[in-house]
Amino acid sequence: MGKSTPLKVALLGCGVVGSQVARLLIQQADDLRARVGRPLQLVGIAVRDLSKPRPGIDPGLLTDDAAGLAGRADVDLVIELLGGIEPARSLILAAIEAGAAVVTANKALLATEGGTIFAAAEAAGVDVYYEAAVAGAIPIVRPLRESLVGDEITAVLGIVNGTTNFILDRMHTEGSDFASALAEAQELGYAEADPTADVGGYDAAAKASILASLAFHSRVGLSDVDFEGIDAVTSADIDAAQEMGCVVKLLARCALSADGSIAVGVHPTMVPLTHPLASIPGAYNAIMVESRNAGRLMFMGPGAGGQPTASAVLGDVVTAARNRVRGTRGPAESTYSGRAITPAGAVASRYYASLSVNDEPGVLAAVASAFATQSVSLQAVRQESLGERARLGVVTHLARQEQVVAAVAELDRMPEVTPGISLMRVEGA
Amino acid sequence: MGKSTPLKVALLGCGVVGSQVARLLIQQADDLRARVGRPLQLVGIAVRDLSKPRPGIDPGLLTDDAAGLAGRADVDLVIELLGGIEPARSLILAAIEAGAAVVTANKALLATEGGTIFAAAEAAGVDVYYEAAVAGAIPIVRPLRESLVGDEITAVLGIVNGTTNFILDRMHTEGSDFASALAEAQELGYAEADPTADVGGYDAAAKASILASLAFHSRVGLSDVDFEGIDAVTSADIDAAQEMGCVVKLLARCALSADGSIAVGVHPTMVPLTHPLASIPGAYNAIMVESRNAGRLMFMGPGAGGQPTASAVLGDVVTAARNRVRGTRGPAESTYSGRAITPAGAVASRYYASLSVNDEPGVLAAVASAFATQSVSLQAVRQESLGERARLGVVTHLARQEQVVAAVAELDRMPEVTPGISLMRVEGA
Lengths: 429, 429
Prior knowledge:
Two copies of one chain form a homodimer. By secondary structure, the first copy, chain A, is of the alpha/beta class. Helix content of chain A is 36%, strand content 25%. Chain A has three domains: 7-136 and 307-325, NAD(P)-binding Rossmann-like Domain (Rossmann fold); 141-303, Dihydrodipicolinate Reductase, domain 2 (2-Layer Sandwich), CATH 3.30.360.10; 344-426, Alpha-Beta Plaits (2-Layer Sandwich). The first copy, chain A, is elongated and about 85 Å long. Chain A starts with 6 loop residues before the first strand and ends with a strand. Chains A and B meet through helix 2, helix 6, strand 12 and helix 12 of A and helix 2, helix 6, strand 12 and helix 12 of B. Strand 12 of chain A pairs antiparallel with strand 12 (295-302) of chain B.
């Protein structure tokens, strides 16, 4: 192939990100050609609705035959931006079988079907790149897969969902409750009409599984992630965090447990203001990597949006295209370590518990005893009298989830304690 | 070559970083083999002094014949950690000629002789990786070279020298003057016995030239960088910054000018506390990348030290070794855009000027007029009376360096103004 023979690119999906990718492929054609070594030619865009107006997009490129486009034998590179499991999964597998490299931003698919897709790519000898699947434009997949590949990563902590970070930020700074902060996020376009995947923690959990797989050279799927969302976070939780010099963040936490297994969870977590992740504002994302030799690294940037995500997609397109020009491939998925998943109950964290109790002698002793019975030691206790009732705020030292849950269950049965104890993880040792 | 045939690795230099690299190559041999696909075998370490005790290093590996080791035909990968121009330059060229891939942390060499080295590597068809040359363990070379390669970068701002960041931090937090903060940095091992390269801005300038080359796909050398150090920063400058809600940082700034040329400078700069780079503590490094599509990204981590730098070196070693196993190469240097360098005098910035003047009628008007004559507009003026004298603090809007320098030269000639006007850039528009 000569230097002027174009590499053929097919685009599946032309929504917020896809339309930006199409625009950039055309507008930056000269730069991309110089960086790749050959021109990139967009040969087709698969869309669901052919009749929808798409300003700036050549209508001749549009097709509603996604399977036909993805499986074209002459296509070098397929960009999948449909999202969701099907038809994305079948189309990607068809593209791989036809010999194309694949660039995708589909975290849900990689978190559930990553094994199938990487195995197919390995068998066919083609690249699969997915920088845009985690934390938008922030380069994190490539640093984990390549820059830190000579190091031993011990933990990856991240704010990987901009919608929930925006909502929690508003609850802190404006004193909004969850419902009105969510409504504001929807008005401003930071939350979708159906916000379930974001506020329920599902989106962050998919990203956590991808980060954990990369960091620990092991297969971690969505079903391995112990996750919860922010829909149960109350203004009282926010106030309690502030009293403790913390902010509440939806934190994805992937860490090596003492026994070498991998703990992966996504939980609303109190993060001390002195922690670098505490100051990540609004819809930004940030990821902190802790490793034996490099120490603590932090990566920050816009976590979503059409343009930032398109930037990450284009970076992958150039890399995959460069590889193709050189007749080579990038690093394949690395799962050699085959680590087990730490059971959720065995994952250690600090916890904050807020209890409403009768303000009478002996209650504090009973509460302390419930924790002690489960071998949970307390780091701090704060009692605030409210007349006949008192509010008790308790911070534990590092304890396993199952210990803390058992202690709280016992407390919930005590007549002096109002049922419905609020419990939240606290970052830090 | 079978999967068990080792790739042969030669190490040039066994100082703070080199000894860590040697240690990790041995300790993490199993992980590295799994990640590369073949074992890495350390076949020799070139040192200056064979008699120096090196605990944990097999004495049989040591040699004082660096040229013989670097030029061995059977070596797959040469790691250069000598620093400085010669003999590092000749040894790297010999290694390339012998067909080895090169991993180096040598910023001074790349900043001055990068063109020669990259051309030799291109001609020989071998890789040159240098993540450790900029900002220690922080993955920034690979994100610029690969992750953001589909985007258009408009500016790279960085705190890329930990020694000066530590010293400035101490001057702010402890009220130390430059000399005692430097002495403290030397005691703690953050500054070398001869601190010239760090405090004089030379080290940061070398890194700035590498960052600018990568970001703008153009050759930028050390001689293109307009740089100064922090040795002239006074406690009065620190106080003035604090009064303005800023901190003084040694900021490397690489940006596209309006005419498409590249402005590259390293200067002590007042950075507003609201700026993400303002809060980078102690010996940490951080780099902010601004791009058309990805927006603002920030990368933070330990900027120096044996272990963090060794982590970056090992990441490059694995990448280069993987390429070799696959019979391929990584992306070559990209200099297609061939941009000009903005003359230092034409680079725009905001400036802070501090003047000691006679406290008498008409002085403020004369000062304002000196700036106006050079078409420099003022954003803020603060006057503090000190009896017969007054201190004037002036912040300009964006102005070219030559305009501000001319205005200050005129002020310096005025009888009402004490000569020796203190001038510092202010980050932000």
